[in-house]
Amino acid sequence: MKSTQRRFHATHTSGSAQGRSGSTQSITSLPDSPELDRAHRLSKYVWQMAVRVVCFIGAVLVWTTWHTWIAVIPIVLAAVIPWVAVILANAGNHGESDIVSPAGAIELYDAVDPRLREQQEDARAEAYRTEQERLREQAQQAQEEWQRNGDRSRVWSAKPRTRR
User: How far, rounded to the nearest angstrom, does the alpha carbon of residue 66 sit from its chain's CA centroid?
Assistant: First the structure.
């Protein structure tokens, strides 16, 4: 089922809940609120940045203690962690199951009936063509008016202006 159909699709039949082919959403299956999701992503990001700081401190400790190339490993990790943290923070907690359609929602006809969709698209195209034609005629009339009257913005007026 396409995403637009999935989002707006609902089965609406009369009778008991057993007669419906769809299922009612449980309150526990609803996605987190945007505020809670944002707080969770921020918390994950802060923890990952804390691990990055620990990597830098570890690199300094390894270098000061053993003066070996092993200090490069925490530095490389500290360089990669911000990229991973941003990717994970922007991904959020959204899954395919987070799409919620309320029970008894109205099914959109243009998402289901191709003939109605074609009629709607034809009506939109005709309205667009009509508007473009009106604007074209308006521009043509303005151009003809300008050609008839000319540009008089830079012409001296015939009457001399009198000073008071």
Answer: 51
Assess whether 43 and 70 both reside in one domain: yes
CA-based nearest residue to 15, from 104, 109, 102: 104
pLDDT in tens, 99-154: 555 555 555 554 567 787 788 888 889 999 999 999 999 999 988 888 888 766 66
101 part of a folded domain: no
Long-range Cβ contact pairs of 108-117 (< 8 A, separation 24 or more): 108/4, 108/8, 111/2, 111/4, 111/5, 111/8, 111/9, 112/5
Range of the domain at 54: 32-93
Is residue 13 in some structural domain?
A: no
Question: Would you state the pLDDT for residue 13?
Answer: 39
User: Do 41 and 71 belong together in one domain?
Assistant: yes
Q: Which residues contact 87 (CB under 8 A, 6 or more apart)?
A: none
Question: The tokens of 61 are what?
Answer: 């400790």
Q: Are residues 114 and 71 in the same domain?
A: no
Inter-residue contact 25 to 102 (CB < 8 Å)? yes
pTM of the model: 0.43
Task: Say which DSSP state 31 is in.
Answer: P
